[in-house]
Amino acid sequence: MGRNLLLNMADNGFQVTGYDKDPKMLKKLEEDGKAHDLKGFASLEDFIQSLELPRRVMLLVPAGPIVDSVIQELVPLLSKGDMIIDSGNSHFTDTSRRADELSKQGIHFFGMGISGGEEGARFGPSMMPGGDKQAYNAVKPILEAVSAKVNGDPCVTYIGPGASGHFVKMVHNGIEYAMMQVLAETYALLKHSLGYSNEQIYATFDKWNNGRLKSFLLEVTKDIFKVKDPKTGNLLLDMIKDEAKSKGTGKWTSQVSMDLQLPIPTINEAVSTRDLSKFKSLRIALSKALPHQGEAIDHKEAFEVQLEQALYFAMITSYAQGLHLLEAASAEYKYELNLKEISQIWRGGCIIRAELLEDIYQAYKKNPELPHLFSDESIQQKLKDIIPGTRHVVITAIAHGIAIPCYASALTYYDSLRTANSPLNLTQAQRDFFGAHTFERIDEEGIFHADWNSTN
After folding, report:
1. Residues 140, 144, 176, 199: which is the catalytic one?
2. I need a surface site. Which of 39, 83, 356, 430 has the fewest CB within 10 A?
3. In a domain? residue 253
């Protein structure tokens, strides 16, 4: 990814050099960058000396201790006024700490999330830089030049102070988890409820990707159903073990949502489902001990239409939860996040780019103070149109015994938000009964405690 980003910068007329400890990677960089006479260095000292002052060093290394190790190697070779940009998926708390430490040494630092994978880095990613604004302004022309473009707008903007760039990228990845899981659940419904073949599933996803569901994730998902396994001749997907792994950004998103007391149940379920998938032997045993036979679906074409509606609903909900979390984090951490600009730069280059983001961008453009995505009238109309089909899909999946954690949580989230009077008054009464945790009343201000053991 780092090599591709350098090649992208070189294509846009910027002079760049690279450093890597692996000679093969350096050779590959120089071969691919022959047209621009790109140079790679195996010596960190030589690499630093090759840069003009003030130096601008971009890191693309795995998150965690490796970032600290690389920074420790760099700092003695840098001068005051030089800049380090961490473009990996670092945890936002680490970014805050590093920024404080480097600032004391006169070195500019900011964290920048990059989305789009290797191809995005080469031809235009979405980038989320946050932190030292002076440092960002120094590289702004480069970042805008190499970023993806939508309607002529670069898919990069200054996110905000502190570790806001890495925080926004983390939440981006949380939304990505949810959308990937919803697509997996859709695959399960097409395969097990409708009995569709792999070819039929490809055709369905292909058709949907030409409509309002058009997105990068649906595009790559449909293409998976075309790839054959060279060893067996079967569809490669059918030969892959159903245990999903992760690198932590989804878990981090769930953890911080709990800290901020801002519910993102669909994202949480996506994280939990990956963890649950690892219990393969237990799942096999229980599938035999606790079998379930669902009813056949009579009207397959009608159900396919409803499933398209449910997938659209789940996508809207995934974005809504992520954006709501960003709003809460902005207030808590003073990130000054602009949700209009964030939804704007997510429209191109990144993994969660989709046609729907244009509608989301327009919603926040119309009302930058929108309390929740569901509060926008145009989004509300979409929800009203697709909620009946969504309910039918969830009911059908439950009747068939098909696990749909993200679909079910998305629908419950929607119903919870539109419930004016929830049953949580009972929960608060219980807390006061056994723990004297007090409660508030609906008819007067104040904090109250009742003697629940008294009789009238």
Report:
1. 176
2. 430
3. yes
Domain boundary among 112, 137, 162: 162
Q: Give yes or no: 169 in active site.
A: yes
Name the nearest CA neighbour of 307 among 237, 417, 386: 386
* Mean confidence (pLDDT) of the chain: 94
Same domain for 255 and 142, yes or no, is: no
Same domain, 185 and 295: yes
Q: What's the pLDDT at 147?
A: 96
124 and 228 fall within a common domain? no
Domain identity same for 80 and 196 = no
Q: 276 and 218 in one domain?
A: yes
DSSP for 77-90, written as a single string: G--TT-EEEE-S--
pTM for the full predicted model = 0.94
For residue 275, the 8-state DSSP code is: H
Tokens of 308: 């398209």
In a domain, 190, yes or no: yes
Is 296 found in the same domain as 358?
A: yes
Quick one: average pLDDT of 100-128?
Answer: 92
Does 64 fall in a domain?
A: yes
Using a pLDDT cut of 90, give the percent of the chain over it: 83
pLDDT at 182 over 70: yes
- pLDDT tens digit sequence for 290-325: 998 777 787 899 999 999 999 999 999 999 999 999
User: What would the pLDDT profile of 242-295 be if each residue is shown by its tens digit?
Assistant: 999 988 899 999 999 999 999 999 999 999 999 999 999 999 999 999 998 777
Q: Are residues 173 and 248 in the same domain?
A: yes
pLDDT band at residue 359, thresholds of 50, 70 and 90? very high
Do the domain assignments include residue 220? yes
What are the distances in angstroms from CA 135 to CA 25, 55, 83, 231? Answer: 28, 11, 7, 50
DSSP-H helix ranges across 226-349: 249-260, 265-277, 280-289, 300-333, 339-345
Please count the structural domains in the chain: 3
Q: Is 191 a catalytic residue?
A: no
Last residue of a domain, one of 162, 182, 209: 162
Mean pLDDT within 38-53: 90
Residue 209 has pLDDT above 80, yes or no: yes
> What angle separates helix 164-188 from helix 92-103, to the nearest 10 degrees?
160
Identify the domain containing residue 83 by its residue range. 2-162
Instruction: Compute CA distances 93 → 107, 129, 268, 343, whole Å.
Output: 19, 15, 20, 23
Beta strand 153-154 with 126-131: parallel, antiparallel or unpaired? unpaired
Q: Are residues 355 and 431 in the same domain?
A: no
pLDDT at 214 over 90: yes
Contact by Cβ (8 Å): 370, 363: yes
**CATH code for the domain in which residue 433 is found:** 1.20.5.320
